[in-house]
Specification:
Layout: H1 28-34, E1 39-49, E2 54-62, H2 67-73, H3 80-83, E3 91-96, E4 99-103, H4 107-121, E5 127-132, H5 137-142, E6 150-154, H6 158-167, E7 191-194, H7 198-206, H8 218-225, E8 233-239, H9 248-255, H10 257-266, E9 267-279, H11 294-306, E10 310-316, E11 325-331, H12 337-340, H13 344-354, H14 370-374, H15 381-387, H16 395-403, E12 410-411, E13 416-420, E14 429-433, E15 442-443, H17 445-448, E16 452-454, H18 456-465, H19 470-482, E17 484-486, E18 493-496, E19 505-506, E20 514-516, H20 517-520, H21 548-553, E21 559-561, E22 570-573, H22 584-595, H23 602-624
Parallel strand pairs: 5-6, 5-8, 6-7, 8-9, 12-15, 19-22
Antiparallel strand pairs: 1-2, 2-3, 3-4, 9-11, 10-11, 13-14, 14-22, 16-18, 17-18, 20-21
């Protein structure tokens, strides 16, 4: 049968402000559907004008699928197409005011990429709130979790929900999930629907008195007296407009610091939020602050100011849009960094235990698994590149640019040797330069990039078994004594130099001659922290919550010489920045006692204990063999 290809084009020329109510035709709807001549089949499924937006839903066939194959799939002739109809369905697209929102072919990829990483970053999410999500697919993803007690969806446009329920039912169908069993996810007993403005809802429930949204009349004041206080949420999901959208409401969503503060207050102490942030940048793009993604930059600043401790940006290229899509997870407490960086094996076990089974036997998660999560854990290179183009340039980026310069010299490992340290009265081994090392020279750069890495989950296993085995106990003493604690993958991450550089000691009284390159950029000997004068108030600032550069390179310790170092001089660094966050001042006091000869280091204690144990075992063995020269009383 013949088919018709048609296209819609505007005649004449118009300025951007002369489109009137036809602007939606110049957006994604026009570019991807109406103006395209690549489709053998285009059909309008529905159109609706709500009080808030225009909704268009279209089916198309073409580009990557043959129209004849689709027609064969409609027959019952035993062909491959007819027996696998699900592979030949038209691509269905949802547009709001002409802007593409989601697609049938990207349904699972987008919504699982939005929801599942943040859900599994939390230990046991029970209360969830969704901002937007009128299609119902975000709600569907949350309801796949066994742990959920309640999920509240705050969507301003009830008509959008009704249209979605009627025309894109596969987006919001929970009937296959054992334990949900409802055709529309909104009917699940755990779901609560609120058809309200999310900005007002969160400000009214969690904002300060000064942030009340709109005027409050007498009737509202009376309602407030009977108001039941809203409980905080474990997870908050913002599935609303893109920050690049040029409409006033998008500006309110992403540029209002009081709204961001209300979101922060709506979360429990260990709560986490995820936001979709529009199309990912390209490698050639300038910094976000100079593009249409400027709201992304201001939003991140508001999130930092609100108090979020850890942020993780990632992208997915299979969401059905014209480019990879950006997501941002923000954690109120950095303790959940450990879950974000959990191993693939750990996450696979969590998925198996936490996700509902289905009546069909098909996996409830069609796209997301541990292998996919591994592509989200570290920011894509493009985020680091664009981040480092910001002005002023972030300090961490300056450090790497300095190290990557050809003129930066490196003192290799063979330029150093091990001797007894002179750093303190009771110090053990130390590292000494065999040659002169000029200021700015990197110290054993190759070896510094290859530390022994102790994942938090490995550390917990050590703690579980160290009481049962002296060997495992010795492993912990080695890690604790020679390693340094970081928040790279959570608060309990350790790195240990595996070369002789592990013997580099702390420079007492601020007299150290090497430091990490990032810290060296701002090094000032007159203001540097030292263990003799530091107070609890001098605790160094935490890592920046948002720093894609550091998130991609944090495992690399890039030490440089702070001044010219002479041959025969001991190499020292500043342990003040290696101490754990929660025990910072206690460990500073320990350093002070060691520098003053009052105490010794963990390794010296461990080696002394080892020698005593070895001597005890040797003497006990001699006694058991009938040694006549052994002093039993001494034993």
């Amino acid at each position: 049968e013949p088919s018709t290809r048609w296209t819609h084009k505007f005649r004449g020329f118009r300025k951007w402000n002369q489109w009137g109510n036809l602007g939606y035709l110049t957006s994604d709807l026009g570019d991807l559907v109406l103006e395209s001549t690549e489709y053998d089949y285009k059909k309008e499924i529905t159109f609706a004008q709500t009080p808030f937006q225009r909704i268009d839903i279209y089916d198309t066939i073409g580009r990557h699928m043959d129209h004849d194959a689709y027609l064969r799939s409609l027959k019952d002739d035993g062909s491959y197409e007819a027996t696998h109809k699900e592979f030949y369905r038209p691509q269905r697209r949802v547009f709001l005011d002409g802007v593409l929102q989601s697609t049938r072919q990207g349904l699972e990829a987008y919504h699982e990429a939005l929801v599942q990483p943040v859900m599994f970053a939390h230990e046991y999410p029970r209360r969830v709130a969704i901002i937007g999500g009128g299609e119902g697919a975000t709600l569907r993803e949350v309801l796949k979790h066994k742990s959920i007690d309640v999920v509240k969806m705050i969507e301003i446009d009830e008509m959008m929900v009704d249209v979605s329920r009627k025309h894109i039912p596969e987006w919001n169908d929970c009937s296959d999930f054992i334990g949900s069993d409802v055709i529309w996810c909104g009917d699940d007993k755990r779901a609560e629907m609120y058809y309200e403005d999310a900005i007002g809802w969160f400000k009214d429930n969690f904002g300060s008195d000064d942030d009340t949204f709109g005027e409050v009349d007498e009737e509202e004041e009376e309602d407030n007296e009977n108001f039941e206080e809203e409980k905080p949420f474990d997870i908050l999901i913002m599935d609303a407009l893109d920050p690049q959208d040029e409409i006033p409401f998008a500006s309110l969503l992403y540029s209002d610091p009081s709204f961001v503060r209300a979101l922060y207050e709506s979360l429990s102490d260990d709560g986490i939020m995820v936001l979709q942030l529009g199309g990912a940048p390209f490698h050639e793009d300038p910094a976000d602050q100079f593009t249409m993604s400027a709201r992304r930059t201001s939003l991140i600043k508001h999130l930092e100011d609100a108090g979020f401790e850890s942020m993780h940006i990632y992208e997915d290229g299979n969401c059905g849009f014209m480019s990879a899509w950006t997501f941002l997870v923000v954690m109120k407490n950095s303790i959940h960094r450990e879950n974000w960086y959990q191993t693939a094996a750990e996450l696979d076990v969590e998925i198996h235990s936490r996700i509902l089974r289905t009546h069909s036997g098909e996996p409830a998660l069609q796209y997301f698994d541990a292998a996919v999560m591994s592509t989200y854990v570290h920011p894509h290179k493009v985020f680091e590149t664009v981040y480092c183009r910001a002005r002023p340039q972030p300090e961490s980026c300056v450090a790497m640019e300095m190290m990557s310069q050809p003129k930066v010299e490196n003192a290799s490992l063979d330029k150093f040797e091990v001797r007894l340290s002179g750093a303190g009265e009771k110090s053990g081994r130390g590292i000494y330069a065999k040659v002169d090392v000029a200021k700015g020279t990197t110290i054993a750069r190759r070896e510094a990039s290859r530390p022994v890495f102790i994942h938090p989950s490995s550390l917990w296993r050590i703690f579980d078994y160290m009481e049962m085995s002296s060997d495992i106990n010795d492993v912990w003493k080695y890690v604790d004594g020679y390693g340094w604690q970081t928040d790279t993958l959570g608060p309990y991450t350790y790195h240990v130099d595996k070369s002789i550089m592990t013997f580099v000691n702390h420079g007492c009284k601020g007299d150290f001659n090497t430091d990490d390159m990032a810290l060296a950029q701002s090094f000032n000997p007159d203001t540097v922290l030292n263990e003799q004068t530091a107070t609890a108030d001098d605790k160094p600032e935490n890592r920046k919550p948002f720093d894609p550069f550091t998130d991609r390179h944090s495992a690399i310790q890039k030490d440089v010489a702070l001044r010219d170092i002479k041959a025969g001089e001991e190499i020292t660094c500043n342990y003040m920045y290696f101490t754990s966050e929660e025990d910072w001042f206690y460990e500073v006091e320990t350093l002070k006692n060691m520098c003053n000869g009052v105490d010794v280091g963990l390794i010296t204690k461990a080696e002394t204990e080892f020698r005593m144990r070895k001597r005890y075992n040797q003497t006990a063995s001699e006694v058991s063999e009938g040694c006549t020269t052994c002093d039993r009383n001494e034993l």
